[in-house]
Structure formats: C-alpha cells, structure tokens
C-alpha cells in the first residue's frame, strides 16, 4: 500500500479501555468492515514490546485493507516493519520527536501525521520541507476524556479557521461523534478521526457504516 492509497476519511484511533472485553483487534476488524479507512493504534500505557505485539495483531487483522499507523512510537513502527508487518506510518504530537527527525527515521514512503492546534503550529508546518508531513491532526473539536491533557477545544468554526491557514490535509480529531461529520466536511476537513464513537460502540461495524454514510452524504 502506497502513500497514494492513504484515505483518512474515517480514521479510527484505538482505545483499549473503551473497547472493553471485545478488545482493540476485534473492534478494529469490525470497524474496518463497516467503512473505516485508516487505523491508528494508540497505546500510551503499553510497553514498547506490548505496543509492538498489538500493532502487529492489528495489522494482521486488517490484512492490508486500510493503512495502519502507530501513535508516537517511531521505534515500534520501525520494529514492526522489521518484523514484516503491514504498517504504514506514525502520528506524532508537539511533545514527541521533531517531525523532521521522524521523517528522516521512517523514510519517504511512510505516512507521517502531525498534531496541530494553534496558528503557531500551522506556521511551523508551513515552513517544513515539502513531504515532511502528509497530514495534520487538528483539534480537539470538543473536550474529550480520551485525551485528558487536550488543548482548548476549537469547535467546528475554530477548526475551519485553522484549516484555512494551511494547504496540508487536515483531519479533525477530538470528541467527534455522529452528527459532526457533515459539518466538518463542509468546514474543509479531509477526514474525521474518532475514538469513542467507534471504540465504545455496541456494534462498531454498524457505527462505522453510519458515520461513513453521514460523511458521504455531505458531499
């Protein structure tokens, strides 16, 4: 799968606590069957070895149908690639490794996402060499318990103001649920990253179908 195949329309960010007994792997499998187009494995509480094992399990479960990205852990991404797993990139935040260094480590073919939530972040992104970042994760849209240290919520209007300041694809994230996707698409979002709307859903496949329908009908 190449960078040209990257489609962040409905971007699932995993949360083991919200997935509950069903688990991350099965939640991902069901959500992809319902229309999720990209999966990010976020496992901040796991050791490197545990995160690697989970990332490989998710990649195997997805079977190459959609890109699989790991949050923060460049080392885990590289280890998974070394093991032959079908993983496709990393997403890093403002407090992680400098994104220029991340690109140098993972190579040109990997997908690299970067979190941005201020005008200053977008100014920095605009000065990066072309190809350093493939998309920006812009948020949070509203307060969310899945990221306790989140920045001040932007709301959809705040997202749109920031999105207008960059030519990079912007994926909205943070407290997004059904009913938000149409407005976000109209605000210029390239996609919507969701956590609890899928991980906590009783039926992740049905929830994904509903979210994709809302996005598609907003065209």
What is the correct CATH architecture?
Answer: Alpha-Beta Barrel
CATH topology label: TIM Barrel
Q: What's the CATH first level?
A: Alpha Beta
Number of strands: 8
Lateral strand order in the biggest sheet: 1-2-3-4-5-6-7-8
CATH homologous superfamily grouping: Aldolase class I
Helix content: 40-55%
Q: Which key features would you list for this structure?
A:
219 residues; alpha/beta; TIM Barrel; eight-stranded parallel barrel; 10 helices; 8 strands; 41% helix; globular
What do these coordinates show?
With 219 residues, the protein is of the alpha/beta class. The protein has a single domain (3-217), classed as TIM Barrel, CATH 3.20.20. It has 10 helices and 8 strands. It has helices spanning 16-19, 23-34, 48-62, 74-82, 99-106, 119-127, 155-163, 181-186, 196-199, 204-217; strands at 10-13, 38-41, 68-71, 89-92, 111-116, 135-139, 170-173, 191-194. An 8-stranded parallel β-barrel has the order 1-2-3-4-5-6-7-8, surrounded by 7 helices. Strand 7, helix 8 (181-186) and strand 8 form a beta-alpha-beta unit. The longest helix has 15 residues, at 48-62. The chain is globular, with a radius of gyration of 16 Å. The two termini are 26 Å apart. The relative contact order is 0.17. The model has no long low-confidence stretch (mean pLDDT 95).
């Amino acid at each position: 799968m190449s960078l040209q195949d990257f489609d962040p329309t409905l971007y699932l960010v995993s949360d083991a606590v919200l997935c509950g007994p069903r688990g991350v792997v099965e939640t991902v499998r069901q959500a992809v069957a319902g229309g999720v187009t990209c999966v990010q494995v976020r496992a901040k509480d796991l050791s490197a070895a545990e995160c690697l094992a989970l990332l490989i399990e998710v990649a195997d479960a997805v079977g190459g149908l959609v890109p699989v990205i790991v949050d923060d852990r460049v080392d885990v991404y590289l280890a998974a690639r070394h093991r032959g797993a079908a993983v496709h990139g990393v997403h890093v935040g403002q407090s992680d490794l400098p994104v220029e260094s991340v690109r140098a480590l993972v190579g040109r073919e990997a997908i690299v996402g970067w979190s941005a939530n201020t005008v200053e972040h977008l100014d920095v992104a605009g000065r990066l060499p072309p190809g350093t970042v493939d998309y920006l994760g812009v948020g949070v849209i509203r307060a969310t318990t899945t990221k306790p240290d989140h920045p001040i919520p932007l709301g959809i209007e705040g997202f749109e103001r920031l999105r207008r300041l960059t030519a990079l694809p912007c994926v909205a994230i943070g407290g997004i649920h059904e009913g938000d996707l149409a407005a976000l698409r109209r605000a210029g979002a390239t996609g919507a990253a969701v956590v609890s709307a899928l991980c906590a859903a009783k039926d992740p496949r049905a929830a994904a179908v509903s979210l994709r329908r809302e996005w598609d009908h907003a065209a």
